[in-house]
Structures are given as structure tokens and as C-alpha cells.
Amino acid sequence: ADVTQDDYVVRGQADAIDTVRDLLDVPSVNAIGYCVAGTTLAMTLAWLAANGEADKVASATFFTAQVDFELAGDLLMFIDEQQSKMIEQLSADHGYLDGRYMAATFNLLRGRDLIWNYVVNNYLMGEDYPAFDLLHWNGDTTNLPAKWHQNYLRDFYRDNKLVEPGGLSVDGVAIDLSTVETPSYVQAGREDHIAPPESVWRITDHFKGPITFLLAGSGHIAGVVNPPEAGKYQYWTNDGDFATLEEFIAGAKETPGSWWPHWSEWIAKRSGKKIDATGAREPGKGKLKALEDAPGSYVKTR
């Protein structure tokens, strides 16, 4: 119930970075943050920079992640004092917000596709639900710690404090995104209704380091989880310095298919030389002990 953003940065991401560096005996890692984990990664990079440890991360990749919430889209409709009080009441009994409430909120943003489509086809027409792996995965919701969630809505969505130098702090260290010099790859989804591309683009206004921006076809999930063999969608790239997403799009090159090969080429240049594998890894046999047998009891918690 009392987990905060500090925990996710220091005892979550920063600790994971140090753990991987220690286990693999490497000076730095390539980090990825998806959605809210990308927002947290931005804070982690700024926190590391403030502590003189920016070199622990060789590169950062952001999937549909926002740092500036001024253009956060339709979710802003759910951020007011009345809504905040209701959310506090929903999470008061258990110390967390049931993930199903969050899923329902996201579904409301695309009611035609994610609610009424199934009412008509399944309830009215009697058709079976189509087998769709991404929707099944999306239905595996995550409960949100009460204090963290309330602070997240207030500090990020309502007050947009992350883009204010020193507006937020982590473990007593002021966060300033303009100190982030880590090479970054920023991916946005053209039809993303949760993290609109115009909002994701804003990360280019706040980081100091080099940024490669890519606009992918589709939305918040399918725009990211798009393996090349599927042959679906497309992506847009445009080298240069642009003030707005509109300028980027105006001269962008469209490439059919998955954007994964483009990212693979980018990350390979920042990953050092390849080495021969020394054999299959046995989970729990090294320094990092296994918590329990796979898949883990926490995975089955509803």
C-alpha cells in the first residue's frame, strides 16, 4: 500500500541495473521501459545522472512512454478531484487499485472497439469470441499500489511535475530530465489512445542526449508487439532535428512491416561485441537465487 515512485526507481530499476551489471560483469546495460515503466526509466536516468552514475546505462529505449503529460489525451478526462477521491475509496480497503478498474478505464477510451464490438457480435449475434493472443495478454491486469497510483495521477497527469526541473525528487535527489544525456530510442504508436504520439514526442523536448524517434503503425500494444514474420503495419523514420511531430511526419520515410529490425540495428551499435555462449543458464544456480518454481505463484494471483 505504501510503495512509492522512489521504490520503483531505486529499489526497482536502479537495483535491477546494478544486479545485471554484477551478474554479467559488464560496466553498463541497455535499458527498456514500456509505458509507465518508460516514465520511470526517465526518472531513473535523471537520478543516476544526479548521482554521477549515468554511465551505468549505455542506451535507453522507450516504448509508448510519456514524460510530459500536457498532451496525454483522453485519460486526462479521468483526472480531477472527484475522480481522485473515488479512486482513493476503491483502493482504501486493500491498499491497491484492482487492475480490472484500470482495464475498464482503458476500454472506455475505445468503447466502440473494446466494448460494443463484443456486445454486438457475442451477445446479440451469438458469435464466439475470436482467439486473439494480444487481447488475452492484455486481460492479465496488474494491481496498482494505492499510494503510488494516487501520486502518479496527481504529480504526472494533473500537475505535470516531471518536466519541471526539481519538481519531483527520488530519495531526496531532485529530478531534472535535462540532465539525461543517454542515447535514447523513442517509439510511439500512431493510433495509440493511451499514450498519444504527440505526447510521446515531447520526450525529445526534455532530454539532452541524442534521440532516435520512430512512429509505428497501430496502437499501444499491437504497435509495439509486432514481430517481423507477421508482416503487419508500417513505421516512419526521419533523421534530423524537428520542433514538432507534424514536422517529423511531413518528411518521414514510410517502411512497411515491423519496426523491430530498425531497432535491432540501432541497439546493436550500442551493445558491444558478441561473445560465444558458455552453455544454457540454469535459473537459481548463480548469484541470483530463484524465488520459486516457474511460473511463480504471483503470476496466478487474480
Per CATH, what is the topology of the domain at 5-83 and 159-268?
A: Rossmann fold
Q: What is the CATH C level class of the domain at 5-83 and 159-268, in words?
A: Alpha Beta
Strand content is 5-15%
Query: Measured on Cα atoms, how large is the radius of gyration?
Result: 20 Å
- CATH-defined architecture of the domain at 5-83 and 159-268: 3-Layer(aba) Sandwich
Structural class, judged by helices and strands? alpha/beta
Number of helices: 11
Would you report the number of β strands? Answer: 10
- The quaternary structure here is single chain
Span of the ends, CA to CA: 17 Å
**What would the principal axes of the Cα set say about the shape?**
globular
What share of residues is helical? 25-40%
Instruction: Output the helix-strand order.
Output: HEHEHEHHHEHEEEHHEEHEH
> How are the strands of the largest sheet arranged?
1-2-7-8-9-10
Please, what is the average pLDDT? 91
**Major sheet size, sense and barrel closure:** 6 strands, mixed
Low-confidence stretches: none
Account of the 3D structure:
By secondary structure, the protein is of the alpha/beta class. The chain has 11 helices and 10 strands. A 6-stranded mixed beta sheet has the order 1-2-7-8-9-10, sandwiched between helices. A two-stranded antiparallel ribbon has the order 3-4. A hairpin with a 2-residue loop joins β5 and β6. The mean pLDDT is 91.
